[in-house]
Specification:
Elements lengths: L3 E4 L2 E4 L2 E3 L2 E3 L4 E5 L6 E6 L3 H20 L2 H17 L1 H12 L3 H25 L5 E3 L2 E9 L2 E5 L5 H14 L3 E5 L6 H12 L7 E3 L4 H9 L4 E7 L2 H11 L6 E4 L5 E4 L5 H10 L13 E5 H15 L20 H16 L3 E4 L15 E4 L6 H4 L6 E7 L2 H8 L4 E2 L1 E5 L3 H10 L4 E4 L14 E2 L2 E2 L5 H7 E8 L11
Helix pairs in contact: 1-7, 2-4, 2-6, 3-4, 4-5, 9-10
Length: 491
């Protein structure tokens, strides 16, 4: 099989990146574009042997990488970011073809964020410090020490951005990395390996092993050489990863999606609420933070729904490479079937599709119509489980207490969005909603320094800013005796 494939005019190596060189596997898997369900290439499928080679390479590279000064590591990461910026258009067109997300979004926001994932943590590294403390005349110094090999397993909905959101701080911390990209969208991880090599990242500091979850992902999760593991994906897969990593007592960071509410009160700016509701169709609903449960106060429910439908009917669905397209396709045939299954089961139990409700037969393939369901059964799977598609539900509430109870009536707790004109209500409700992030009269406003993660089944831990270093490092407290003291116990 050929070692490269050409996607939108960009040559992409389909082999692994291990120890600073390309490594092929005897077996491959077919990478398919969701836009037209056509093959993009045969990609090396790794397993235990490739994972072991990658972890070994990362272990060998770790001492020298960890020993670099902060400025030396930061300078290298800035060079990686420069390389990303220089090839941003190539990354954008390849990822659009590979996972079906909008090209305009990749150009305007996603790929700039990829470069920023390296720049931000490089700059934060330079200033990372904790003031010394004094205790009974002794001095305590807090430091962040590199932990070792970090495994990064990431999903397909924003593969490069979500991978570098973990790879950036892990490398800045002085760790080496073995990344396992998603099998439904692996190609930009290979381009990232090229970029890091061109930037001068030493061999073995970043390794990329492609493959399927049960082979490559399972082997990486269970490897005794891994000292940190960051995973973004589903709850069932997280359970398997946690069980595999447990014998080696590996610290875990999990971001597992959600079933977030959009709570609209009668005192809200309804134009704003409508805009926020329709925004949830972004990336065909394949967004972990999406607020897909619309909870609306009864007195404004009809007006709100009418305005949402009017605006949503103007959504342009089509080829993600077209600048006029608002939402595109779902990522794969299995995922398409899964999303439609949720909708059809809801309809069979009494839900009403006031918008969409099935595949877009005009476009065919993996295009699913933006869908809004009303008259949904409380507690049913459509309002409690993550669909991860362009499917919103609407329920109504009477009181503030009702709204809070409904917002929290899920095992997830990743995010929540509140729309209200009452500052006091905003404070009260946001404090009572269980979520890692709460947006009030806005959506998707995020700073890289803010903690990010979820409650309940939405994950374990927080990343972002210094919280990332807290996870990727071993935090050390060194206590110094007073000058001139030679032993004994100082009280």
């Amino acid at each position: 099989m050929p070692d490269t494939t050409t996607v939108e005019g960009v040559a992409v190596d389909t082999r692994h990146w291990i120890g600073g060189r390309r490594v092929a596997s005897a077996s491959t898997f077919t990478d398919v574009s969701p836009i037209d369900e056509q093959p993009l290439g045969e990609v090396s499928a790794g397993g235990p042997a490739e994972v072991d080679a990658a972890v070994s390479a990362a272990q060998a590279a770790f001492p020298a990488w960890a020993a670099l000064s902060r400025d030396e590591r930061a300078d290298l990461l800035h060079r990686v970011a420069d390389g990303i910026d220089a090839r941003a258009e190539e990354l954008a067109v390849v990822e659009t073809r590979d996972n079906g997300s909008l090209l305009r979004s990749h150009r305007r926001s996603v790929m700039p964020r990829v470069g920023m994932n390296f720049r931000y943590f490089a700059d934060l590294l330079r200033d990372l410090s904790h003031p010394d403390r004094e205790i009974r005349g002794h001095r305590e110094r807090i430091t962040w020490d590199p932990a070792g090999v970090t495994a990064v397993i990431t999903p397909w909905n924003a593969p490069l951005m979500l991978a570098t959101w973990r790879i950036g701080p892990a490398l800045a911390a002085g760790n080496t990395v073995v990344a396992k990209p998603p099998e439904w969208a692996p190609l930009t991880a290979s381009l990232l390996a090229d970029i890091t090599a061109e930037a001068g990242l030493p061999p073995g500091v970043l390794n990329v092993v492609q493959g399927l979850g049960p082979q490559a992902g399972a082997a990486l999760s269970a490897h005794p050489g891994v000292r940190r593991l960051s995973f973004t994906g589903s709850v069932p897969t997280a359970g398997l990863i946690a069980a595999a990593a447990a014998p080696h007592v590996v610290p875990l960071s999990f971001e597992l999606g959600g079933k977030s509410p959009l709570v609209v009160f009668a005192d809200a700016d309804l134009d704003l609420a409508v805009r926020l509701a329709v925004e949830q169709f972004d990336n065909a609903g394949q967004v972990c933070l999406g607020a897909f449960r619309m909870l609306v106060q009864e007195s404004v429910a009809d007006e709100f729904l009418g305005a949402v439908l009017e605006r949503a009917r103007g959504i342009v669905q089509g080829d993600p490479r077209d600048e006029a397209t608002d939402i595109s396709c779902l990522v794969s045939r299995p995922h398409f079937t899964r999303v439609d299954g949720f909708v059809q089961r809801a309809l069979a139990t009494g839900a009403k599709a006031v918008l969409g409700g099935g595949p877009n037969t005009e476009l065919g393939g993996l295009f699913y119509r933006p869908t809004i369901l009303t008259e949904v059964v409380p507690g049913s799977e459509i309002v409690t489980e993550e669909v991860f598609g362009p499917v919103l539900t609407m329920q109504t509430f009477r009181t503030e207490d009702d709204a809070v109870a409904m917002a929290n009536d899920t095992r997830f707790g990743l995010a929540a969005t509140l729309v209200t004109g009452d500052p006091g209500r905003a404070e009260r409700v946001s404090s009572r909603v269980s979520a890692g992030t709460v947006w009030v009269n806005c959506f998707f406003v995020r700073d890289l320094g803010a903690p990010f993660g979820g409650n309940g089944h939405s994950g374990i831990g927080r990343e972002g800013g210094v919280h990332s270093f807290d996870f990727y490092c071993d935090i050390k407290n060194t206590v110094f005796a007073p000058t001139g003291w030679t032993g004994g116990t100082k009280e």
